[in-house]
Amino acid sequence: MSIKNSPGNIVKLDALFFGAHPDDVELFCGGTLIMLADSGYKTGIVDLTRGELSTRGNLKLREKETRKATKLLGLTVRENLDINDDNIENNEANRLKVISVLRKFKPKLVFIPYHHDRHPDHINASRLVSDSCFYSGLVKIKTGNLSAHKPDKIFFYRNAYDMPVSFIFDISKAFRKKRKALQCYASQFYGSERKEPETYISSKLFDNEIESRARYFGFKIGVEFGEPFYCSDSIRINEKNIFDI
């Protein structure tokens, strides 16, 4: 599914979030997205695949769930690149797909999964989008009439495994709404009575971990809930913003 602007009225985004599968962004950094959208920033999600190999649910149901979550999140745009689930290769064809959306929406910030995780799709998605952000800035790579664009910053979000942390975003005001967004994906997460095999993310243990993790990272910055991010670039601090850290 997708929410798209008309060709002559494409909106530049403040922040664009990439996920390997529908529900990845909501799960791992949905609170941050909600805080930005609710503050008036233009936000978008690009799902690389349709999650067609998910153990639970089916494509028709997953698309319905994604539409429901998208409406709740207040996104400016959501697109799906139709890359095959379990085959997120960092090849020229896939890079051009990612480069095209980067150049179309020209985001200032890009959020992508960290490249160390239990799920190969998350690892491959990280490498694909990270490389594409670089190549998107090269003028000799052509994508029709879309001009070159390189995001100001790439922020990596945490998946299952630990990662270095550059900063933690306070999502205390957005956590309940994040929970509601995840509940839109009833086929994937704990809480619905489905006659399908239990998976890693549909277990009660994982459901508890969602809140435990958010509370843990919130505690580290003195708030109720938080989401961690890593930036491989240095982050500029000056006399005007140092007191806001």
Features:
single chain, 245 residues, alpha/beta, Rossmann fold, 7-stranded mixed sheet, 13% strand, globular, disordered N terminus
What features would you describe in this structure?
The protein is an alpha/beta fold and 245 residues long. The protein has one domain: Rossmann fold (3-Layer(aba) Sandwich), CATH 3.40.50.10320. The chain has six helices and seven strands, in the order βαβαβαβαββααβ. It has helices spanning 24-38, 59-73, 92-105, 120-135, 175-183, 204-220, and strands at residues 15-19, 43-47, 77-80, 109-113, 153-157, 167-170, 226-230. A seven-stranded mixed beta sheet has the order 3-2-1-4-5-7-6, sandwiched between helices. The longest helix is centred in the C-terminal third of the chain and has 17 residues, at 204-220. The radius of gyration is 17 Å and the shape is globular. The model is unreliable at 1-7 (pLDDT under 50).
Order of helices and strands: EHEHEHEHEEHHE
Q: Provide the helix percentage.
A: 25-40%
Give the full name of the CATH homologous superfamily. LmbE-like
Overall mean pLDDT stands at: 92
Here the CATH topology equals Rossmann fold
CATH architecture: 3-Layer(aba) Sandwich
Structural class: alpha/beta
Domain count: the total is 1
Low-confidence stretches: 1-7
Strand order in the sheet with the most strands? 3-2-1-4-5-7-6
CATH classification class: Alpha Beta
User: What share of the residues does DSSP label as strand, in percent?
Assistant: 5-15%
What overall geometry do the principal axes of the alpha carbons give? globular
Care to count the β-strands?
A: 7
Determine the N-to-C terminus distance.
Answer: 38 Å
